[in-house]
Amino acid sequence: MKSWRVLDTGLRPPAQNIALNRALLEARQAEEVPSTLRFLRFTPSALLGYHQSAEQELNLDYCKANHIAVQRRITGGGAIYFDETQIGWELYLHKRDVGTTDMQAISKRICHAAATAISALGVDARFRPRNDIEVDGRKISGTGGAFDGDALLFQGTLLVDFDIEKMLRVLRIPAEKLSDKAIASARERVASLKELLGCQPDVVQIRSNIIEAFESEFGVEFHEDELTLSEHARYQVALREIDTPDWIDLVSRPADGMPVLEAVQKFAGGLLRASVAFDTLTQTLRQVWFTGDFFVSPRRTIADLEAALRDTPLDKLESRIRAFFSGRQVDMLSLAPADFVTVVRLALKQPLTDSVIQ
Amino acid sequence: MATVKGCNIPDDLYYNVENNVWARREADGTVTIGMTAYAAALAGQIVSCTPKKVGRSVEQNKSAATVESGKWVGPVKAPVSGEVIAINEALSASPGIINSDPYGSGWMVKMKPANWDADAAALVTGGAVAAAFEAKMNAEGFAGCA
């Protein structure tokens, strides 16, 4: 049986953790090291996806005042708040380990295995496209990836315990966000293991579940190991590039290029509010939140819809909402899928139907 | 013009097949580079592209731009060494044109090559292109461009 490596690089500031991402991916690409599972933890950090802008994604004044370090990941996806209450897990693989060039299939396979590990703690964790692991519709782990040649890095968070209010303050999300109602509504979308289990989870158990799930998924055995000398050398080089303002500002766009737009509308089925983080440059809905006063069953439908609408080009809004509802059984009384399209278009001040444009 | 498993792979361009990138020598001696239709199909819908800045030197087979799709980030590796002299500004607003027109309006970077003749010797062009990509697609189990 093949032997892969497990590393635990402990609690570190984000520049070090991201530099290690670069170093380990390079070392895997150079075939200097075996495929590797790494566990990591962060001092309080606001982490941008590779192509994101700090001004657009983060509340920088709050981060500065609260000693939250801002850093850019080498992986894709959205901005997150990461602190000591979360565990990071990462796989460094060779393409031959996964046997496909279909990147979405690779994400799905790894997330399924991670969900199995989380479920073994006593919750029902599942993969949700495109890259989340959720429990009953609430996100418990977000993921992203990077590749270089034949080497892949796929990483995920795991919310062990979590300060939701702090996350809302760090991330630049809707204006009404600090109201009790907004915090309650965020709680419906995000879950921590502590909350779900009703007690502090055993981190040693979590680690061993994750190891076991990936061993089983890839038919390998893991052995504990340390960073190699070549990884240390690559890490020092990477840190000199990453621990700099130039790296953090690699992508820099004005905050007003991504306004959070809102609309509220009363429909026969209830009151529906949409808040939309809209990227004006690419005409893309980066994130949409639905709140209001309406009936929907199952309740997780809204969180699933929001996940499905991540990074939706404006011209695909209607077709994505229609495709979402056509694929599932949802009871919304008299609220209709078209009402979601309408309230988002109102937020964007777009014509309510394509036919309005003459 | 060559079509391999439904992917357009023009045989008048120069390719690094392993890195799935193309280069075109322009009349003024500059080199335009981008991703192949096959690379774009593997990536799926591209949502972001960040080229290296104008004035930066890039070595052959090092990253000249970075693209993101489906939360995966990866490099687009320069087929030749040289200096970045222009980037395709249109990609920041419309990265999807890399998928729809990878050899035309989806170009990424223009370079002033350091030594075209030496670097081009390692690239595949003309009649050898189709067979080289077909072998790569077969090895990678690729079904075909949609």
Question: How is the quaternary structure best described?
Answer: heterodimer
Largest interchain contact: A-B, 31 and 25 residues
DSSP strand tally of chain B: 11
| Helix proportion of chain B | 10-25%
Largest sheet of chain B: 6 strands, antiparallel
- Helix count of chain B? 5
Terminal Cα span of chain A? 66 Å
The total count of helices of chain A amounts to: 14
CATH class membership of the largest domain in chain A: Alpha Beta
Question: How many DSSP-defined strands of chain A?
Answer: 15
Strand content of chain A: 25-35%
Please provide a written account of the structure.
The complex is a heterodimer of chains A (358) and B (146). Chain A is α+β, with helices and mostly antiparallel strands and 358 residues long. Chain A has helices spanning 14-29, 54-57, 60-65, 95-98, 103-119, 164-170, 180-187, 193-197, 203-218, 229-242, 245-248, 301-308, 317-326, 337-347, and strands at 2-12, 36-42, 45-48, 69-72, 80-82, 86-94, 125-128, 132-135, 138-148, 151-159, 220-224, 260-267, 270-279, 284-294, 312-313. Chain A has two domains: 2-248, 2-Layer Sandwich (BirA Bifunctional Protein, domain 2), CATH 3.30.930; 258-357, 2-Layer Sandwich (Enolase-like, domain 1), CATH 3.30.390.50. Chain A is 36% helix and 28% strand. The termini of chain A are far apart. The model of chain A is unreliable at 353-358 (pLDDT under 50). In chain B, the strands form three sheets. A six-stranded antiparallel β-sheet of chain B has the order 3-4-5-11-10-7. Chain B has 146 residues and is α+β, with helices and mostly antiparallel strands. Helices cover 21% and strands 32% of the residues of chain B. Chain A binds chain B through residues 49-51, 74-77, 99-104, 107, 130-131, 143-149, 250-251, 281-284, 311, 313, and chain B through 18-19, 42-44, 47-48, 50, 66, 68-75, 92-96, 140-142.
